[in-house]
């Protein structure tokens, strides 16, 4: 495995872990699951605060909704595969940003 592939895999893992931690923390605090419906409150301060949260929590929400839809609505495998690829790429980007932020702060070498 090349160092670049290992770095990408690590970024994907960190992105999914960060997304899961954010969503579970929100659910423990708000007593309801997080979702993209947080953006439907119109122009309000909490809607603007939800945007950065959803940027990092989206991979977990996408996968949760996709897997739930696969069981409940019997979605096709192609749709599930496409949603998984999108969530994985999104997770890699958010994980890369998080790792770059940790490196810039001097936490990681």
UniProtKB/TrEMBL annotation:
InterPro entries: DUF6949 (IPR053803). Keywords: Membrane, Transmembrane, Transmembrane helix. It comes from the Bacteria. The chain crosses the membrane at residues 49-67, 79-100. This is Uncharacterized protein. It comes from Bradyrhizobium sacchari.
């Amino acid at each position: 495995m090349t160092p670049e592939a290992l770095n990408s895999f690590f970024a994907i893992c960190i992105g999914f872990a960060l997304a899961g931690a954010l969503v579970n923390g929100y659910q423990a605090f708000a007593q309801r699951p997080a979702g993209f419906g947080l953006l439907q409150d119109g122009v309000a301060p909490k809607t603007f605060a939800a945007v950065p949260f959803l940027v990092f929590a989206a991979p977990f929400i996408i996968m949760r909704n996709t897997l739930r839809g696969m069981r409940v609505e019997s979605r096709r495998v192609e749709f599930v595969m496409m949603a998984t690829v999108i969530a994985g790429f999104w997770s890699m980007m958010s994980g890369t940003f998080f790792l770059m932020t940790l490196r810039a702060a001097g936490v990681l070498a």
